[in-house]
Structures are given as C-alpha cells and as structure tokens.
C-alpha cells in the first residue's frame, strides 16, 4: 500500500468539509510541532506531500491523503502550543475532537508524543476522549534521533507507565524518527494490518 501513488484529497477546516466516509481511515494527532506532517512524508516516502515547518502551527486543516480507494491517511492541526491566534487554535481543537468522536470509519488514531518531552496534559485530554469514544489508538514516540538513547529509553518507560493506567486495551507504542527512518517499517506494517482486517 505504501508503494502506491499518494494523492491529496482535501483540506477540511471544519467538520462540514470532511470528505465522504469511504474505506479505512488512519489519523495522526498530537501537539503542534511533534512531527505529524513529517511522519506523513516519511511513511509515504514523499518528501513534500504534507507541509512541515519549524514553527508550531503549520497544519491548519484536516488534510486527507489517499493511497487506494479504500485507504485514507489524515494529517491534523496540532494542539498545545501552536503559534496562531487562540480563537483559531480553539476552532481546530473543536474540529479535531468532533472528527475523532464521530468518524465511523476511523480504524486507528496514532497519537504522536514528542520523544524529548513525553506525555503532557493536553495529550492526556485527547487520550481521555479516545478512551471515552472507544476509538482504537496507538502511541508514536517521535524524534528519537533528537535525544540521547538513555533519555529516549526513559521517555519510553515513562510513557508506558502512564498508558498502563488507561482503560483501553494496552496500546502499542512505536519509537520512531522521521529523520533516520527508525520505527517506520513497524508503523507501516501496523497500518497495513488494519487494511487486512
Ligand atoms: P503542526 O503542523 O504545526 O502541528 O506540526 P507537525 O506536528 O506537523 O510537525 P512537523 O512535521 O511540521 O515538524 C515540526 C519540526 O520538527 C520540523 O522542523 C521537522 O523537520 C521536525 N521533525 C519532525 N520529525 C522529526 C524527527 O523525527 N527528527 C528530527 N530531528 N526532526 C523532526
Ligand atoms: Mg503539521
């Protein structure tokens, strides 16, 4: 599937603009700057498919990419500390939350956590929402290349501890780097398994 031709489908600023539900959808969520758009590019092998930036707040809409008629990958705006006006960020967060709650064909959400910082309160809020809505999710610990191996291992352990207390079936944690490619084969395989289900 990841070898397929990727197409931009649409950019939805609010839920009214969402594309019709068709096939399996996988969404990437996380704080601004955590590396969601970079992960879209790394997973698809297309350097400029999604727009990335050093400035938090780059992605401002739900961006849908399609590989096959039956598979959609969704890049989302970030929450937490986006450099954008508060009312705009609040509107994104409302849209993200409504999308996550109401998208019936959403097969898995990957919650990206910055490998340098670990889980923050805003991440816990999204995990709470996913638990309540019974949406299946997994954790992606990003930017493993940015910290020392021992520090990254500590973040991983800490993340496991925090996740263990959640009602959801213990979610998988993928240590990754979009820079070095670490963890990407595992992530692609996990997504491919969803399609096979
Ligand atoms: P928003 O759209 O603003 O919410 O951010 P985002 O989560 O989409 O982050 P984005 O992919 O734009 O990446 C933010 C910054 O982190 C960029 O400068 C990327 O180059 C950098 N980055 C992302 N992933 C990695 C990684 O694995 N390693 C390193 N070293 N840098 C990364
Ligand atoms: Mg982005």
Automatic annotation (TrEMBL):
GO process terms (BP) = division septum assembly
GO MF, one annotated term = GTP binding
Cellular component per GO, a single term: cytosol
- Residue span(s) of domain EngB-type G: 22-197
Q: Which cofactor does it need?
A: Mg(2+)
| A Pfam family the protein falls into | MMR_HSR1
Entry's InterPro entries? G_ENGB_dom, GTP-bd, GTP-bd_ribosome_bio_YsxC, P-loop_NTPase, Small_GTP-bd
Q: Which UniProt keywords apply?
A: Cell cycle, Cell division, GTP-binding, Magnesium, Metal-binding, Nucleotide-binding, Septation
**What does the record give as the function of this protein?**
Necessary for normal cell division and for the maintenance of normal septation.
Give the UniProt family note: Belongs to the TRAFAC class TrmE-Era-EngA-EngB-Septin-like GTPase superfamily. EngB GTPase family.
- The molecule here is called Probable GTP-binding protein EngB
- Organism this protein belongs to: Azorhizobium oxalatiphilum
What's the source species' lineage?
Bacteria, Pseudomonadati, Pseudomonadota, Alphaproteobacteria, Hyphomicrobiales
* Gene designation per UniProt: engB
